[in-house]
Amino acid sequence: MNTAKDVNDPLQVVLVDDHAVVREGYRRLLERTGDIAVIAEAANGEDAYRLICEHQPDVAVLDISLPGIGGIEVARRVIARLPHQKILMFSMHEDTVFSSRALQAGARGYVTKSAAPDVLIEAVRLVAAGKLYISQEMAQELAIQMIPGREKPIDALSAREFEVFRLLVAGHTLQEISQIMHLSYKTVANYQSSIRQKLDVSNTAQVVRIALNHGMIASAPIDGEAGERAG
To answer: In this structure, are 42 and 130 located in the same domain?
Structure first.
């Protein structure tokens, strides 16, 4: 848990990414500055939530794509419990559907993994200082998205629906999603119905196509696998 600090103490960071080699690289990048220290690491959403709540770091650097619950759902749960926790989302996804969702969940910044290394360092420092960080290009895209008539169907999904949507297109069955999110099977099935209605689709294959269009997945499951697994 983050306690009173001396002004010269390094910023404490909890780093979350599901790839150990990636975490190692980012930890070295952050700690070479001398004013940032990675105090804990997590590889999945459940551990991320537990460690962030336990340590309450100056900044939690959180990837979106994680095993189990995703980074955006982790952020939502953390902020619900610790409203002042500063979270910086760090992701391969450049579509504003992710950055807007992350900010809605309570994140204070969003950096893509394609950004220059120094960008992450700058973002951690700014978010720790209580400022909002988002790239100029993404800020412009978000502003355009706010123009009436430019909304995307996916924007109509609630936070819980978006997480179910993300897990569905990742190939999880409804039963698996109910276990991951600690919800009843019936509740998840109701979310799936609501998602299809809001997206104006009738089957999982069409849901997957929407996910492809937003860069949420690289390719669709083969031979109708998604439709069979989702139920």
So the answer is: yes
State how beta strands 36-42 and 11-16 pair: parallel
> What is the Rg, in whole angstroms, of the alpha carbon atoms belonging to the chain?
18
- Tell me the CATH number at 86: 3.40.50.2300
Strand positions, DSSP E, 56-127: 59-62, 87-91, 109-112
Q: Give the residue numbers spanning the domain of 140.
A: 11-145
Domain termination site, one of 118, 145, 172: 145
Residue in 170, 29, 148, 34 with CA at minimum distance from that of residue 90: 29
pLDDT at 154 over 70: yes
Among 91, 99, 179, smallest CA distance to 136 is for 99
Least confidently predicted of 2-11, 63-72, 112-121, 214-223: 214-223
Residue 221 has what DSSP assignment? P
Q: Choose the weakest-confidence range: 92-106, 130-144, 208-222.
A: 208-222
**What is the Cα–Cα distance from 231 to 228, expressed in whole angstroms?**
6
**pLDDT-derived band at 149, boundaries 50, 70, 90:** low
For the ranges 78-82, 154-158, 164-168, 197-201, the one whose mean pLDDT is highest: 78-82
pLDDT attached to residue 151: 62
Q: CB-based contacts of 1: which residues, under 8 Å, 6+ apart?
A: 54, 55, 56
